[in-house]
Amino acid sequence: MKKIKVIQQIAEQGVVAVLRADTAEDVVRMAEQAIEGGIKVIEITMTVPGALRAIETLAAKYSSTAKDPARFAIIGVGTVLDPETARAAILAGSEFVVGPSLNPETVMLCNRYRIPVMPGCMTIKEIQQALELGVDVVKLFPGNAFAPSMIKAIKGPLPQANIMPTGGVSLSNLGEWIKAGATAVGIGGDLTADAVKTGDYSIIAKKAAEYVAAFKAAKA
Question: Which domain of life does this protein belong to (predicted)?
Answer without folding.
Answer: Bacteria
